[in-house]
Amino acid sequence: METNQTNRSQQRATKLYKKRSTLEDIWRQLRRNKGAIIGLILIIVIILVALLSPLLLDYDKDVIGQNIKQRLKPPSSAHWFGTDELGRDILSRVIYGARYSLAVGVVAVFVALAFGITLGAAAGYIGGKFENVVMRICDIFSSIPSVLMAIAVVSALGKSTFNLMLAVGIASTAPFIRVARAAVLVIHDEEYVEAARAIGMPDWKIIWVHILPNCLSQIIVQATLRVGSAIIAAAQLSFLGLGVPAPAPEWGSMLSAGRQYIRDYSYMTLFPGLAIMLTVLSLNMLGDGIRDALDPKLKR
Amino acid sequence: MYRYILKRLLMLIPVLLGVAFLIFAIMDVAAGDPVYSVAGADATPEQIEVLREKMGLNGSLIERYIRYIGNLLRGDLGTSYISKLDVMKVYLQRLPNTLKLATLTMIVAVGMAIPLGITAAVHQNSIRDTTSMVLALIGLSMPNFWLGLLLILFFSLRLGWFPTGGSEGFRSIVLPAITVGTSLAALLTRTTRSSMLDVLRQDYLRTARAKGVSERNVIQKHALRNALIPIITIFGVQFSNVLGGSVLAETVFAWPGVGRLVVDAIDQRDIPTVTGALVMTTMLVTIVNLLVDLVYAFVDPRIKAQYTK
Question: What sections of the protein cross the membrane (chain B) (predicted)?
Answer without folding.
Answer: 9-27, 101-122, 134-157, 169-188, 227-255, 275-299
